[in-house]
Specification:
globular
């Protein structure tokens, strides 16, 4: 049984690759999977690329190819809760696709996906273990939030758009992959968790902040994941 780990960006993925032991590589289609151990637990790591289609496709390939017990999606996000600052951590209690809209086709809410629902809930055991892990970190200089993470095929730079997503979905942050991975895991009945570090906030300069802070945020998330896996 493997713990599957999915990251979108190379820096996010490499922060995890650097804490893996006994690593081997395997090519499946155009994806490079790294098999190894973290805290003596068997893991498989992959970079999915940016966006919901890449994320969903990669999650399904991973589940089909390997004997996956849990899927953990890690990476960065844009904070839309004004209480969040760069380097804070969001643990996704629920995931929603805020660009999914079939309200014109019937009695649906914004973000509601036909036959699967609006929110996809992370595994409660993993949420609790992750919260304990973060709270036990020494000398941490960041906050954690447990709440909704909103995904779309959009790098959100517009403050008014961010405020609308916050108002409509109660989301803590926005990103581009988590809810697609969550939907695949929901359909395949695989427990999952999404952990995101805040790399930017919609302020007109967030593309600059993203590049500046992506590496340090990725290392923080990797530290959390390392200690979380020891508890699983």
């Amino acid at each position: 049984m493997f713990i599957g780990i999915i990251a979108a960006e190379n820096k996010e993925m490499m922060a995890i690759r650097n804490i893996m032991q006994n690593v081997s590589e395997e090519q499946v289609y155009n994806l490079k999977f790294f098999k190894g151990t973290i805290q003596e637990k068997e893991c498989v790591l992959v970079q999915c690329g940016v966006g919901k289609v890449n994320a969903g496709r990669t999650a399904q390939i991973m589940i089909d190819k390997y004997n996956i017990s849990y899927v953990i999606n890690i990476g960065s996000a844009g904070g839309i809760n004004k209480e969040l600052n760069i380097k804070d951590i969001v643990i996704g209690k629920s995931l929603v696709q805020y660009d999914f809209d079939v309200t014109g086709a019937g009695n649906y809410e914004k973000g509601e996906i036909c036959e699967t629902g609006k929110f996809f809930n992370s595994d409660e055991k993993l949420i609790k273990l992750c919260e304990e892990t973060v709270n036990n970190l020494k000398d941490r200089d960041f906050k954690i939030k447990i709440g909704t993470i909103a995904s779309a095929d959009l790098f959100c730079t517009d403050l008014s758009k961010a405020e609308k997503v916050r108002e409509e979905f109660g989301a803590e942050c926005v990103e581009m992959e988590g809810a697609a991975i969550a939907q695949v895991c929901f359909l395949d009945k695989i427990p999952f968790l999404v952990i995101r570090g805040i790399s930017d906030v919609p302020n007109g300069n967030n593309h600059i902040d993203f590049v500046t802070y992506l590496e340090s945020v990725s290392k923080s998330v990797a530290e959390i994941l390392d200690k979380l896996i020891s508890k699983i």
